[in-house]
DNA sequence: ACCCAGGTGGCTT
DNA sequence: AAGCCACATGGG
């Protein structure tokens, strides 16, 4: 079969990173653990096998230059400093950060995040992954084959925009089926949201199928807005446990996050989310 | 048979 | 503005 890997990239001196934490913390859906500590998956259009040994990150990829992967893994951000800052004032956060020390917020493609998190609503992570893989297999360009597994790029917006409700329903997308072509068309018209965080948020909320929670996930994972604080059922659990909120007091939780977590809300949310979900 | 999952749209007060 | 409830699907 065609060899999928075209080149190898090595990054040395990579601190505060653990591939399991990065790929299992719920921010992305297309990576799978190998039996040797590696992770293999697709980011946008490119295949990648990642292995972290000590502080050296080795990537075998099908495309994308050094800068692309440096950005994707957020290697320019000092997570040590962030963790010291957010852990200092709060014991609950300190425990989560200690346990989930290797999380990094990937800088994923906006459209991929947009579609993925529309699928995520009222759904669980294994099924979200299955839905996305089925969609990529059906409508994404084949990148190649490795170890008997075929890898597919994330589908183009132009293609998904032309599909019918039934095309998604047959992939078991359920009631979300008609959100995806609509969202793809809107994305093609409007492009990636720009401006202030509040402007981006307002624009995302105009999509059918995007409410406050999904909008914040897209801001955090697809638009680099690391202050965004998505509140789902797990976040409600830890906000209740740690700070005594009633489970349905979303407004109170939002206010607390804004006032106490501020610009690091997204990081804090992600450490605690992964810690509590286990 | 229920309840839950990285919730939201739409309708009714 | 706030309170219901239906919405597909699959696992526990």
What does this protein structure show overall?
This protein is of the alpha+beta class and 278 residues long. 48% of the residues lie in helices and 13% in strands. The chain has 14 helices and seven strands. It has helices at 19-24, 66-72, 79-88, 91-99, 110-119, 125-139, 157-160, 165-169, 179-190, 197-205, 212-222, 233-243, 250-261, 265-277; strands at 7-11, 31-33, 39-43, 46-53, 56-61, 142-146, 149-152. It has a five-stranded antiparallel sheet with strand order 1-5-4-3-2. A two-stranded antiparallel ribbon has the order 6-7. Helix 5 runs antiparallel to helix 11 and helix 10 packs across helix 11. It is globular, with a radius of gyration of 19 Å. The structure holds a DNA duplex (13 and 12 nucleotides).
How do you describe this structure in short?
It contains 14 helices and 7 strands.
């Amino acid at each position: 079969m065609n060899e999928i890997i075209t080149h190898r990239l090595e990054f040395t001196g990579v601190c505060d990173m653990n591939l399991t934490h990065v790929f299992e913390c719920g921010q992305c859906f297309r990576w799978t653990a190998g039996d040797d500590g590696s992770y293999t998956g697709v980011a946008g259009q490119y295949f990648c096998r990642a292995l972290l040994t000590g502080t050296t990150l080795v990537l075998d990829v099908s495309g994308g230059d050094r800068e692309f992967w440096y950005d994707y893994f957020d290697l320019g951000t000092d997570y040590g400093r962030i963790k010291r800052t957010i852990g200092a004032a709060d014991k609950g956060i300190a425990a989560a950060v200690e346990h989930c020390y290797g999380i990094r917020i990937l800088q994923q493609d906006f459209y991929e995040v947009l579609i993925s998190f529309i699928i995520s609503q009222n759904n669980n992570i294994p099924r979200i992954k299955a839905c996305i893989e089925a969609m990529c297999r059906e409508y994404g360009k084949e990148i190649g084959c490795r170890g008997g597994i075929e890898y597919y790029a994330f589908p183009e917006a132009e293609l998904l925009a032309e599909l019918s409700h039934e095309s998604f329903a047959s992939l078991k997308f359920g009631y979300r089926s008609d959100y995806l072509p609509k969202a793809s068309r809107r994305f093609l018209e409007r492009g990636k949201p720009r401006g202030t965080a509040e402007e981006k948020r307002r624009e995302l909320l105009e999509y059918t199928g995007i409410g406050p929670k999904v909008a914040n996930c897209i801001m955090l994972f697809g638009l680099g807005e690391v202050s965004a604080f998505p509140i789902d059922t797990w976040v409600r659990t830890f906000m209740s446990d740690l700070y005594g909120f009633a489970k349905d007091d979303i407004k109170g939780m939002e206010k607390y996050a804004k006032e106490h977590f501020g610009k690091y809300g997204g990081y804090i949310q992600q450490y605690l989310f992964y810690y509590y979900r286990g």
